[in-house]
Every structure is written in structure tokens, then in C-alpha cells.
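Troubleshooting log. The previous structure file for this entry was overwritten by mistake, so regenerating from the original sequence record. Sequence copied from the archived sheet and checked twice against the printout by T.R.
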Amino acid sequence: LIEPDGDQQRSEQEKQLPLPEPRSPNEDEPDTVEWEVSFKKDDELGIDVLQNDTNDLRVNKIKAGLISRWNRENPGKAVRPGDRIFSVNDKRGNSEELVSIIRSCEELKLGIRRIQRLRVEITREEGAALGIDVSASSRCLRILQIRDGPFNDWNRRVSSDLQVLTHHEIIEVNGISGTSDELLQAVRSAGTTINVRLRVVPRFEHARGGLRPRARSPSGSPTSSHSSRAVGGSPTS
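Regenerated output below.
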């Protein structure tokens, strides 16, 4: 057995969120979803964000405050770490402009975007390993470890929310979805270019899973960032 990662600790807010039941991947689920969060700013916003991209804010941590309160009152539209704030009061701009609006306005309407599915195109030399270990579920392959290889190369080229992480689940390979054995066979029979679709698993959902099964390399046999900042206090006079 492989122990869960030690650096995946959940925040207090994540522990309060309703945990989804284990389920098979829904292949019809959209790649991204968007919704609005609205409230009067009578308290701290209670989030840390990453400004590693230019036109939105990535939620890095949720603490006590308005977002935590919103999540308790609206569990179906709860904001989680990894979600993106792409507009504030119907205005879009660079990340500094969004932070400025949040800090200066007494009423806020935040546009939130969540990535639920990733589409990744990787290339490899003929017959080369992919550099990942996976565990097999009924209709997906959960990534347990990423080493040097095509997936690691992809991660170096893209922004943090488009990176493939160790708790994501492969649900489609070159247009083929099915059982874990069918997905493994699709990986092994693929050529030098592989198109992969993955389910993005929230970190708090990943953390609830406990011990993990023995890892497998999909191209072989079984095998043994940025700083964040707080935004949005109550308006000052």
C-alpha cells in the first residue's frame, strides 16, 4: 500500500464542505462550469489567491470570512481551492484590477470558473514510458505518481490549473473510454501522440480516500508554486 501524500492537508473550510460519494466518471460532464457568488462585504473575504495568470485570480486557500459563509449557505455553489475568479461586479481585467475592485467595493458579485475536465496532448518517442504510475478503478485510471516524462513535460508548459496532478483520473485515451483495462490497452497501443481526457479531482475529495492501492505503470508492469496573497477586507473609511 502507498500512503497518501502528506502535503495535501485540507483547510478547515474544506473539511466542512459536503464530501461527494465515490462515483464513476460522467463522460457528459462539461469541461468547465461557471456561476456567480454575491454578497455585501461586511467582513473579510477570507481567501488567499494566486496571481500567476494575467486575467483571473486562482483561489489557493479558504479561511474564515465571507466565502466560507457563502459555502455553508450555498453548498451547491461552494467555492473551492483551485477555482478561478474571472470577473468582479461584471468587470474583467488583469489580476491587479480585479483585486482593486474587490478591495474598494462594498457589494461584490464574483464570477467563478471551475475546470472539471482537462484535455491533454502529449508526445513521446515510439514505445517510451509515460512517466506515471496509476491505480485502476472501474472506469478510470487514477494517477498516483508523476515522474520525468511526457506528462511532466506538459506540466512545465502550462499554467498551474491546467497541470496534471497526482490525484487526477484518466477517463479517455485517444477517444476511447471504458474500463480501466481498456484504457490501459489504449495507452499501450498508442503511437507517439496521445490525447488524454482527465477528471479533475478536488484536493479535499482526494484526501478523504485514505490508503491507496499498489501503483501500476500504464506503459509497463506494476511498480513498487507560486506564493499566495489574501484579498478583500471590509472597506475602510
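The mean pLDDT is 78. Archived copy saved in two places this time.
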